[in-house]
Design a protein that fits this description.
Length: 499
């Protein structure tokens, strides 16, 4: 009897389906077998998730299954490593010589590119002003766009920034996080700085979330577990580092650190969400020495931005509980507005409307609100549920705001909160503005061209760019559109060129 029971439990633990069969062919009453069946299913679920790394890949609303996977059997890491090894063995490909852009921007010849690097444009999270707007060159409307390259990439939801002629991102590679630099013309990896760190969440998935930032030859990168590095952009070697969670006695957010570092003068601002006045902190960007700390709020998943209200600079940040304005010199609280979200899921960036108004939006904070910012604080102008950004952000063009209301693209008048139109189902993708057009990267990896007009929803073109669930924000620099997700990255020529 003892051996039989031991065999049963071994079967349940090693291979639950076999254990379930043995349980039901044993003699005994039905009720204990039903209770045992529940226990076997519970054990099976735990083993599938923690031993066999089974994952259900949901869409952003968690109501639709995109894919199933067993990460332990995945060959993705091996494919990525093989790709990088092959890159090192092959000679550097010569990028094609493109016709000169329409805009008066100096372009180097192929020979000159080895010594002359044009000043980068998209050096920050969501562009140079963190507003999702590309205005460097005119874009082409002749789609589908030309793909220049596609390469495997490590996991995570970071976007891409540019600097010194390189593209930077951060990835999960096996048990390490890797801050990486690529040649945007060819997709070749230039360097990868790795360190031990691994974050994985059952529904959200693995990998770092925050986008690295380039500034004056340095790359500032924040990992999922709070590892904060200042790296030399040319070599990838660290100048200084610290863990912002440990340094500020903070606990990690449920879906990990997601706020990109913000450079303000000689400071770099990060948002660990610590208590005791260490929710948002500033370090000296060259040395890593502490400069100031402020607030006691949980972090949420947004990045701080720099804005001018009535000609006064402020750091604007939406944390898990409220929107705040801070003095960038000392972190002094200038104003606040309650904006709590379920599970702290404020993920969308504020939209600066003009010198006195800012728009907030969050699916989990029940909609959008327009605030008027004055010397006396923040005043609510309107609040409604007509624009519910989830983990994407809206853009402003000619006085109108365009963004994803849950999964549907919408245009609203920020002065009144009235909806001008809604149309097109793009899932929980991302939206950028380029000239008179919206560039929408869908949750399924399509790139879509939509006219930015309050008159009506006008989708002009679309094509498949990458495969798999895509929540990462695309980036555009010098006419190159880079898109990535947790498995691959691709580059397309979006800048309009002369004949």
């Amino acid at each position: 009897m003892l051996r039989s029971r031991l065999a049963l439990w071994l079967a349940i633990l090693i291979f639950p389906p076999l254990g379930l069969i043995l349980l039901w062919i044993r003699h005994g009453r039905v009720f204990p077998k039903l209770a045992g069946t529940v226990a076997v299913f519970a054990i099976a679920v735990v083993e599938l998730i923690w031993v066999y790394k089974f994952r259900i890949v949901f869409n952003g609303n968690m109501d639709h299954v995109i894919a199933y996977s067993f990460r332990w059997t995945s060959h993705h890491d091996a494919d990525l490593e093989a790709s990088r090894a092959q890159q090192k063995q092959e000679p550097e490909p010569t990028p094609p010589v493109e016709p000169a852009p329409v805009e008066p921007i100096r372009t180097a010849t192929v020979k000159e590119r080895t010594t002359i690097v044009p000043a980068s444009y998209w050096t920050d999270f969501r562009g140079p002003h963190r507003d999702g707007v590309y205005s460097q060159t005119a874009i082409t409307t002749e789609w589908p766009l030309k793909m220049l390259w596609k390469e495997p990439v490590g996991g995570g939801y970071a976007s891409i920034s540019f600097g010194d002629g390189r593209a930077y991102t951060i990835e999960q590679r096996r048990g390490n996080e890797a801050v990486t630099a690529y040649n945007p013309d060819t997709g070749r990896e230039i360097w990868a700085f790795t360190y031990p760190a691994s974050f994985d969440e059952v529904l959200g998935g693995p990998g770092p979330r925050a986008t690295p930032v380039f500034h004056e030859g340095l790359v500032y990168s924040l990992g999922a577990l709070g590892d904060f590095y200042c790296l030399d952009a040319k070599t990838g070697k660290p100048k200084w580092s610290k863990n912002i969670l440990t340094d500020n006695a903070a606990s990690n957010a449920h879906w990990a650190m997601a706020g990109s570092p913000l450079i303000v003068d000689d400071k770099v601002i990060v948002t660990p969400g610590g208590t005791n006045g260490k929710s948002i902190v500033a370090y000296n960007r060259l040395t890593g020495d502490p400069v100031w700390q402020s607030l006691n709020d949980s972090a949420g998943y947004t990045s701080p931005i720099l804005a001018n209200f009535s000609s006064h600079r402020q750091i604007v940040w939406i944390n898990a509980e409220r929107a705040v304005g801070l003095d960038p010199e000392n972190g002094k609280l200038l104003w606040s507005y309650p904006f709590p979200a379920g599970m702290g899921m404020n993920c969308s960036q504020p939209v600066i409307i003009d010198e006195t108004h800012v728009l907030l939006s969050s699916s989990d904070a029940h909609g959008a609100a327009l605030l008027e910012i004055t010397a006396d604080g923040a005043k609510e102008i309107w609040k409604n549920n007509r624009l519910k950004n989830k983990f994407n952000s809206s853009v402003l063009h000619d006085g109108y705001v365009y963004g994803l209301d849950e999964q549907i693209l919408a245009c609203i008048d920020p002065k009144t909160g009235d909806v001008k139109w809604k149309g097109g189902r793009y899932g929980y993708g991302q939206v950028l503005l380029a000239g008179e057009h919206l560039i929408v990267l869908t949750e399924d990896g399509d790139v879509v061209l939509v006219r930015a007009t309050p008159e009506s929803h006008q989708e002009l073109a679309r094509f498949k760019a990458i495969e798999g669930r895509t929540w990462n924000i695309p980036a555009i620099d010098h006419g190159l559109l880079l898109v990535r997700n947790a498995s691959e990255m691709a580059c397309f020529r979006i800048g309009r060129t002369s004949e």
